[in-house]
């Protein structure tokens, strides 16, 4: 059996209406992909955020009249938002789940940390292996900002340290810190969905919940910590700068990411009021800042 798939660029945040229209035209499934590799961080509770520049995949039965679909779409108001990429392709029958799973392999960060999907064997059984499956949100290590933070944690001695994961998402950084020897981790996020995702990933990795305090920011009293990691966005990093700085004890470490390379200098200067800041570390146009709290 075969299907036929329509693929096109779409630059409009109102993707839900487009999806409804494609389903009315006979689409069996509609998938949105990010065309610019922009992460979704900290969506509001109950919100389903979408990127502004999408790649749309609409799956139809193979005998659909593609000409009539083309005419309907091109004559609709959506047409003004469709980019140059517009094509049909035959999709052959195959084991879709296996095909999807094959796209995800264990990934190494630094010297010790591996992210290992549940269906894969750990390449290095004695390494720090985090069991984490790819999902729709919150980070699985594939984005540069998460990778930069994991690399910093991997290169640091966390033994006996207290760590705050500010904007924990999937809990990947909190889990990494615990497996790398942190004594206690405080993980907070403004999205209740992220809290649930972190709980599930803690269970998947068999981590004792007594070592982690998890909740919404208003639910968790944060101590002055040895290390604070905040992989969020540039604007909240600006707005929360003083609060974040006050949460790190003298001599403690700060790690910030979720910001573009073009935003690094400004934030480095802002946080230098409280920290001896290091040079920014850049990967794929994204930056990581780090520093040590001044006395």
Automatic annotation (TrEMBL):
SUPFAM superfamilies in UniProt: S-adenosyl-L-methionine-dependent methyltransferases (SSF53335)
Gene Ontology molecular function, alphabetical: protein-lysine N-methyltransferase activity
Annotated residues for binding of S-adenosyl-L-methionine: 146, 167, 189, 231
Family annotation (InterPro entries): Ribosomal_L11_MeTrfase_PrmA (IPR050078), Ribosomal_PrmA_MeTrfase (IPR004498), SAM-dependent_MTases_sf (IPR029063)
Keyword NADP recorded: no
Signal peptide: none
Pfam families per UniProt: PrmA
Superkingdom of the source species: Bacteria
Compartment(s): Cytoplasm
Catalysed reactions listed for this entry: L-lysyl-[protein] + 3 S-adenosyl-L-methionine = N(6),N(6),N(6)-trimethyl-L-lysyl-[protein] + 3 S-adenosyl-L-homocysteine + 3 H(+)
Enzyme class: transferase
GO CC list: cytosol; ribosome
Keywords: Cytoplasm, Methyltransferase, Ribonucleoprotein, Ribosomal protein, S-adenosyl-L-methionine, Transferase
Family: Belongs to the methyltransferase superfamily. PrmA family.
UniProt xrefs under NCBIfam families: prmA
Protein name: Ribosomal protein L11 methyltransferase
């Amino acid at each position: 059996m075969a299907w036929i798939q329509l693929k096109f660029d779409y630059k409009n945040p109102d993707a839900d209406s487009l999806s409804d229209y494609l389903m009315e035209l006979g689409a069996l499934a509609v998938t949105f992909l990010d065309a610019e590799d922009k992460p979704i961080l900290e969506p509001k509770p109950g919100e389903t955020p979408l990127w502004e520049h999408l790649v749309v995949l609409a799956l139809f039965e193979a005998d659909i009249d593609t000409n009539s679909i083309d005419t309907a779409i091109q004559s609709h108001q959506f047409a003004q938002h469709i980019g140059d990429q517009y094509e049909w392709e035959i999709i052959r029958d195959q084991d879709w789940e296996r095909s999807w799973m094959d796209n995800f392999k264990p990934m190494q960060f630094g010297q010790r940390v591996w992210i290992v999907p549940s269906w894969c064997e750990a390449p290095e059984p004695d390494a720090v292996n985090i069991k984490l499956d790819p999902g729709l949100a919150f980070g699985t290590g594939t984005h540069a900002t998460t990778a930069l933070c994991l690399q910093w944690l991997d290169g640091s001695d966390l033994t006996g340290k207290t760590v705050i994961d500010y904007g924990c998402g999937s809990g990947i950084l909190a889990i990494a810190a615990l497996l790398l020897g942190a004594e206690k981790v405080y993980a907070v996020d403004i999205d209740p969905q992220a809290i649930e995702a972190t709980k599930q990933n803690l269970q998947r990795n068999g981590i004792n919940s007594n070592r982690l305090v998890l909740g919404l920011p208003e639910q968790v009293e944060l101590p002055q910590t040895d290390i604070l990691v905040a992989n969020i966005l540039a604007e909240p990093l600006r707005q929360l700068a003083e609060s974040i700085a006050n949460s790190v004890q003298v001599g403690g470490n700060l790690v910030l990411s979720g910001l573009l390379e073009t935003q690094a200098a400004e934030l480095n200067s802002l946080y230098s009021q409280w920290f001896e800041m290091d040079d920014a570390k850049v990967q794929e146009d994204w930056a990581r800042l780090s520093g040590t709290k001044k006395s």
